[in-house]
Every structure is written in C-alpha cells, then in structure tokens.
Amino acid sequence: MITLALAVFAFRREIVYAILHFLNKLFINSRTGKLTLSPTQILKLLLFVDLMRKLQNGGGKNKSDPNANPAIQTLGKMNPLVGSLIKGILTSNPAYIPPMYQHYTFERVNERYLKDGLALHKAIHSTHDGFKWPSSHPVLTHNVEGPTIKMGGEKSNETAIILDLTKLGPSPSETIRDQVSFVLSQYRQAAMKTKDNNSTNIEIIAVLESPGGSAVDFGLAAQQLLRLRDEPGVLLTICVDRVAASGGYMLACTASPGRLFAAPFSVVGSIGVIGQVININELLERSGVTPIVFRGGKNKAPLGMIGKVTKHSMDKTQSMVDDTHRAFKQHVVDSRPILKDKIAKVGTGDVWLGSDAIGLDLIDGITTSDEYISEKVSNGVRVLKMLKCPPRSLLFGRHPILVETSMKANPISGLVQAFLGFVKNSAGVNDDPRISLRDGIDAPMGEKLPIAASTVDTPKLKL
C-alpha cells in the first residue's frame, strides 16, 4: 500500500492527464466539446459494474473455483488478457493478513569502535599542508603504531548476546518474554551452530537495572529468565550496575550459578513485599456520606478505599502479604541454593551495596557490565547486542496498521487519537492509574506516593 501510494503521488500528473484523455475520447463530443453521456453509455457502465460485482461474488455458484464461472470462460475465449486479469482479481483472497515486521536487530560489539578508531588514527597520523589533505587514507592494521581495532578476528566460536534490561519499568514481563522467546527459538532452530553442526554454547548477558514493582509482573518476568537459564547450552549472566532491589533482585537471582555480578556501589537485596492502600471511609462518613460495600464471600477484597477497616480485613491483607513474601524467599532459595541457610538474614527487606552483598552470597562477583563485556571481546568472543527495531511509521510515530484501522473507523477520531498518543508519548504520560510503590531507590518522586485508584479494590502487592 505504501509503494502504491508513493507511485500515485509521484505520477499524479500523468495519471490525471491519462484520465482526462480517456474521458475526452469516450464521453466528450469532438465537435461541440461538451460532455455527453448517452443512455446506452450509462447502461454499459451500470452493466459493467454489476458484472464485476457478480464476478467478485463468484456468480452465486462455485465461489471457490473461478474457472467454473461461465462469464469468466466466455471472457477468456474472447480476450485472453482480460480473462486472466479478471481471474487474478477473483482468486485474490480479500482477507487481511498483517505484514511481517522486524522486531530486533543486532550490533556487533566487537566492531563498535571501528570507525572511531579510524578517526583517531587519522587524527594522529595525518598531516596537511594548508588546506591540502593527503589523497591516500590511512588504513588500520595490526602492525601500525597507534590504535588498533580487531576486525572479525574472533578467537573462538562462542557467542554472547547482550539483553538491555535497564528500562523495564513497573511491568517488565512483556518485554522480557518476547526477547527470551526470540532467542530460544533461534537457538533451538540451530541458527547459532557452527559449520560442523555441533551445537555451541551461547551466553546471554543481561544488563539489569530495576528497583522493583508489581509482584505479579516481576514474578512472571523471573520465570521468563528461568527459561533461558534452564535451556541446555545457554548460560545466563546478569550484571547489575546500579540497582536490583526487591523485584529487581527477583530477576537478578535467576542468573546461572556463579554468574551474578554487581558494581561495588550498586544496591541489591530488598527481599520483601509491601502493600499499601488509602482508606477514606471515615472521612466520607464525617462528611455525611455512607459508603456501602457488598461482598460475595467474606474474603473478597477485604481492604479497599471505601468500607470499614476491621481486624479481619487487616489480618487477611497481612496474610496475603506474608504469603507473597514467603513465595519470594522460596524463589530466591530455589534460584540461589547458596542462600538456603542465610535467607532468614537477607530476606528481611534490607538492601546492601554490592561490596557488602558479596559477603552475604547475594552476588557472585564485583564488576561492572562494561568490564565484563570488554573482557569477553578481548577473549575473542563474538558479542552481539540485541536492539529493538522500531516499526515503520506513517503518522506521529504510530504503527501503520494502527493508523489504518483507526482511520477506517473514524478518520477525524483516528487523527485526533494519533495526535494525542504522540503528545502523551512525548510527555511521558502513563494512562495506567496504578502507582508503583517501590523501595524508592532511583525512582521518580511520583512513584513513591501511596496513592490508590478508585478502581482498585485490594492493595497492590509490590516487590
């Protein structure tokens, strides 16, 4: 459709001239110069439209086989070219199938600074006489003095893929599950095998940063990472440069044994659960408003924004928090058995610096993601960084399918919605009424406020 639209736009004048020329020959009287449509010509047009509509519907008989239509057979005998064109129209499936789009692309980290090295080498070794630069360009080799860049000289068949998990937000499960599914599907289809068809190990380096969020979302995201770790031949390494607290540590602890690293001043831990809700029942009653809540089951939404706060509701809500905390600690122990005898000490919701966390076996080593990746490159490992490939857009950065769908439903409304979506994305507006209550580490101030939406009938459990 895009190609057709561009072609029409590029040849718009020629198309208009052709149409006018056709109308001039068919419907304009050459002697008077006026538009004349005889009743016979009008009848021909109506019959042609009706014929095409019937042909498109298959003539009401055998719709699956256009060759069985007598009209098509007659046209094919009279004019094979017209008959083939009509047959092509009828055999086309009117059902819409969305086109395939590329979701990810990869950057070769081994060659990331190749052009930068060329520029540095040129700046160091090139000289000029006034405004006259040398005609020959310097070529980087391993024998010249100055910076050298390794070009495709991997020493091993190992491959490492970097996953950027530093901008997960409060709901990371959708992003992680898609990346994991893609990597596993390619690995299982032998896309990353050597020429002799012997499967080679692959390492996934996840650069993680998250202060936590919803227990449901982070629990699901952790299960996605466990899919990677449990895959034979896949090694999951997780590097924390800044923070992996609460739900972030739930993800971090899924690293393969001995593969969890953190920077010295990073913050890890916070193995705890929090649930908060604002109850305005007494405030409404003092204002003369009596909130009424009906429940089918005594434990249905025990504590919410409205409704009396009773001992039963408090005990039931605390029990929900305790159950989630117990499951959190069990997840940590299952992922890192080395913490089995220390979970009572580290599972209190406290946080530690990376330099202190290594003594508690919360992490396996002290290093930054940059140092770890640079070491891999130096060892000749093929390092690829997965990047999200932005979809092609037509209007305000939106996906063309979304624009097309909204425009068909209501052109004006679709245009307005596209513009509002563009403004919201630019301003960082989030339509989700839930406020993520995290540990407050490197989190925006708005996300620390204990605000509950009116549609929330139970406290949201946050990690």
Question: Can you describe this structure?
Answer:
The chain is of the alpha/beta class. It is built from 16 helices and eleven strands. Strands 1, 2, 3, 4, 5, 6, 8, 9 and 10 form a nine-stranded mixed sheet that branches. A two-stranded antiparallel ribbon has the order 7-11. The radius of gyration is 33 Å and the shape is extended. The model is unreliable at 59-63, 140-152, 395-409, 427-437 and 440-458 (pLDDT under 50).
What layout of secondary structure does this protein have?
Blueprint: H1 2-10, H2 12-27, H3 39-56, H4 70-78, H5 80-91, E1 104-108, H6 114-125, E2 159-165, H7 173-188, E3 202-210, H8 215-229, E4 234-245, H9 247-252, E5 260-262, E6 267-269, E7 274-276, H10 281-286, H11 311-335, H12 343-346, E8 351-353, H13 354-357, E9 365-366, H14 369-378, E10 382-388, H15 400-409, H16 411-427, E11 460-462
Helix pairs in contact: 4-5, 7-8, 15-16
